[in-house]
Amino acid sequence: MTHRRTVSATLACCAALATALTGCTSTGTGSATDGSPAPSNSANPSSAASSGTANGGTADSSGGPTPTPTASAPQSPAAARCHSSELRASIGPDHPGAGQENFAIILVNGSHRTCTVYGFPGVAFVNSAGEAVTPDPERTTGQEQRIVTLTPGASAWSALVFTNPALSGVTTVTPAAVLVTPPDETESIRVRWTGGKVSNTGKASVPQVSPVRPGAGG
Question: Biggest alpha carbon distance in the chain?
Answer without folding.
Answer: 146
